[in-house]
Specification:
The structure is a homodimer. Chain A is α/β, with parallel strands linked by helices. Chain A is about 35% helix and about 25% strand.
């Protein structure tokens, strides 16, 4: 496929949800993402692909019998982190439609159903739990629990969806034969235009509630303070240090403060820890060390800290045979791990799953500066078309 | 005055703007504070006191000729910090009306005008600049600059006020003879029910803009990061340490993060430093040390820091003769300094100014736990009535 053909379809969605930062505000089931979901339905309609919804907010556009066996799913998600990049997610959906165009133009007819999928709330940017759509589809989360998750305005996922989620797809493992998710690479590990995923690092989110004593910032003697901002600040630095020592990744990038006023010592500082490592014991050790140091510091600050694991994703090893087949189909494309979570990682617990990565020249992701060359994106479409043909 | 009489009037405003935290959300010129301003007008009306507005949002209720010379002003402010206490501000206004009741009940007629004043935006909780109303009244800020200050929703002070502020009161120094502001004490320094202020520590607010490189929190190698949250966290701890070493107060209690997502390294962390000390050289030395350490750390983190002084209030020494007179009138009431800013501090640059403090048993302020005993509040009214009688 030419870069020009890729860019023609890509340009249809490029401006949707882009804000003045250059980044994207595409929260699941809110305005710009709803426009993208309409765009998805229109693209499917143009291609005579009936669209179904699994009752969890995930959309499927079918080439072939949606009730057939061993369908091959391909796609990704539309939602972004706030001020995120435009490629993380949508690239996989746009590429899926283009790969189907390519197969059809070549006169190919698949023996198994193919579906383009758009998963809902992959980033957890709105309701706090990443891969919510794929967790529901595979039964990894109770529908009632998912329905009760709230966004920052107190709207529940159930309210946003307009219903209690339906939960796992009936006949999941017989109806879905494989999932192939194409995604922009999120580091600088991939030197070829296209690669194949081997594994996803285990990763998780922990919420730290630091509580102290709200008081006047001007008049309260330093010795009388119980300031939870100090404990939070120490924990931010401790997380960074522990991750470096362990060769892991740890980040505290989100914070909420009450009352968040210049002249009032906070009563509450809430921070979130994102931790990832090549294996679960390493990740657990980093988190344990951070919690231990936060607790010690809280003792010195006269504050308290309560830690809640909000989501933990075990290490995912993608189907090794499938990854090897894909690499071989693509002329020995490199096989590499990732430390980013994906719906494919959730699906891999139930069905054979693979991922294709498109080169990211700067390695930047979750930022307005995220970018892939159109030529590499076109190579991604070619690779995906090859894979879909071989698998169906 | 009996505690019961005090509590009867106090109870009229006690519930206005109180939220589930037990604290108050009384932002200047927003709903609960507008209700309090109506209450002010009603109280004045009940007492046949005409109300004037100085065109800056400050309200005056007059006993005597508003165009007379050497008026004695008494009052405070209605606005609170978010989730602040109920006494900081309103106690001075309620006590002023009650002191007038007491003087009238005793058949007293003042030879000079007395005005109860409600200053607007004392906390800077909405538009970021504390003592905005008194700064405008005294010409300490340009009306055009005040008009352009924005709240968190982008509403300007000029829009909230419905006009460009009028600026300094014409004939200020001849029309206002003195200001006496009654206020809850904000530390635990006062052991008697009522005290007199000697001075206000110099204090200020500095905004620190820490910028780095937005990126994916999961995939970006620790060594490749330029994470401004680290620089912010280090600065929080540095401010605490430098203040302790210098016997000063320094606090970073407010922070804003972009994008503030769990899985995205921030591109920007904005933190505010509140610093105060017994004298200006000490305060300046603390701030300089914090800026120096923040800048050094930014160099190590690959981030940048830009520091902006948002407001600096020099040390205020209240009129020493007036403070001595007040103390003597009140049976040698203790004279003590405060590290909290007040409208009285701004007025003191132009007219003789004094403050009365009412005992705060816990020392807590800017917090839902802020409290004064009704008996002490009644003693405050008695003291204020004595002072107003002596001054007029």
């Amino acid at each position: 496929m030419s870069a020009k053909v890729f860019s023609a379809l890509w340009s249809e969605i490029e401006a949707i949800g882009r804000v003045s930062s250059g980044g994207y505000m595409r929260y699941a089931l809110e305005q710009p993402e709803l426009v993208l979901r309409d765009w998805f339905r229109n693209q499917a309609h143009r291609r005579d692909m009936p669209v179904t919804d699994d009752g969890n907010g995930n959309l499927f556009a079918w080439w072939g019998d949606q009730w057939g066996r061993d369908a091959v799913l391909t796609g990704s998600h539309f939602d972004s982190v706030p001020h995120g990049g435009g490629y993380d997610g949508p690239l996989g959906i746009v590429s899926a439609f283009l790969a189907i165009d390519q197969l059809r133009a070549a006169g190919y007819t698949p023996a198994k159903p193919i579906a383009v999928v758009a998963f809902v709330e992959e980033e957890g940017g709105r309701f706090g739990l990443p891969c919510l759509g794929s967790r529901l589809l595979t039964g990894a989360i109770e529908p009632a629990r998912a329905a009760a998750l709230t966004d920052r305005d107190g709207v529940t996922f159930g309210e946003a969806l307009g219903a209690t989620p339906a939960g796992p797809l009936p006949g999941l493992t017989s109806r879905i034969g494989a999932l192939v998710e194409l995604h922009i690479e999120q580091g600088r590990q991939l030197e070829a235009p296209v690669g194949v995923a081997s594994a996803i690092w285990p990763h998780g989110r922990w919420r730290f509630d630091f509580t102290g004593h709200g008081d006047h910032a001007g008049t309260t003697r330093m010795a009388d303070r119980r300031d939870p901002m100090l404990t939070f600040a120490y924990t931010v630095l401790a997380a960074n240090k522990e991750a470096r020592l362990a060769g892991a990744h740890a980040t505290m990038a989100r914070v909420e403060v009450e009352p968040n006023a210049t002249n009032a010592i906070p009563s509450l500082v809430r921070g979130w820890l994102d931790a990832r490592a090549a294996d679960t014991p390493t990740m657990d050790a980093v988190v344990d060390a951070v919690v231990k140091r936060a607790t010690e510091r809280a003792g010195r600050d006269g504050t308290e800290v309560v830690v809640t694991a909000e989501s933990i994703s075990e290490e995912v090893t993608f189907d090794t045979a499938l990854a090897g087949r894909l690499s071989a189909m693509l002329g020995d494309a490199p096989i590499l791990p990732t430390s980013a979570g994906h719906d494919a990682g959730v699906l891999s617990a139930k069905v054979p799953t693979a991922m294709l990565f498109v080169r990211n020249p700067t390695g930047i992701s979750h930022s307005p500066a995220e970018f892939a060359e159109p030529g590499d994106c076109a190579s991604g479409v070619d690779a995906l078309a090859t894979v879909l043909r071989e698998l169906t």
